[in-house]
Amino acid sequence: MLKQSHGESFLAAFNSRFREGLFLLDEPEAALSPQRQLSLLTIINGMEREGKSQLIIATHSPILLAYPNADIYLLDEKGMELVEYENTEHYRITKSFLDNPKMYFDMLFEE
After folding, report:
1. Residue 26 CB partners (closer than 8 Å, separation 6+)
2. Which is it for strands 53-58 and 21-26: parallel, antiparallel or unpaired?
3. Which of 98, 82, 30 is nearest to 61 (CA)?
4. pLDDT of amino acid 62
5. How far is residue 87's CA from residue 110's CA, in Å, rounded to a whole number?
6. First vs last C-alpha separation in the chain
7. How would DSSP label each residue in 49-93?
């Protein structure tokens, strides 16, 4: 029987095995609840403070995108562009939805 969820297992492995080097992560939030995404940010912060790691993370998570001093690049059909957190589509849509979910449901479920 499993004693850890998928997300807890991911965090435990990440925390114990990935301490030095260059790491490429593709949507690590897929296995993580919002609370566990915050835990991942704590681990990343510890790695940053040690100064022995570099992370490149492809994500749709506004939580992970909010990491202080992160360089955020938008990759699309026009190429690659450095963008501010508040200018990412993921931030704008999530904030708009959380500010007014009823509006979204009215639009999405209109008959």
Report:
1. 58
2. parallel
3. 30
4. 97
5. 28
6. 46
7. HHT-EEEEEE---HHHHT-TT--EEEEETTEEEEE-GGGSHHHHH
Q: What is the pTM of this model?
A: 0.85
Alpha-carbon span 67 to 51, nearest angstrom = 16
> Do 95 and 81 touch, CB atoms closer than 8 A?
no
Segments in the chain below pLDDT 70: 1-2
Q: Is 72:88 a contact under the CB 8 Å cutoff?
A: yes
Distance from C-alpha of 87 to C-alpha of 54, rounded to nearest angstrom: 24
The 10 Å Cβ neighbour count of residue 37 is 20
**Amino acid identity, position 107:** M
Distance, CA of 40 to CA of 28 (rounded, Å): 9
3-class DSSP state of 35: helix
Q: What is the pLDDT of residue 18?
A: 78
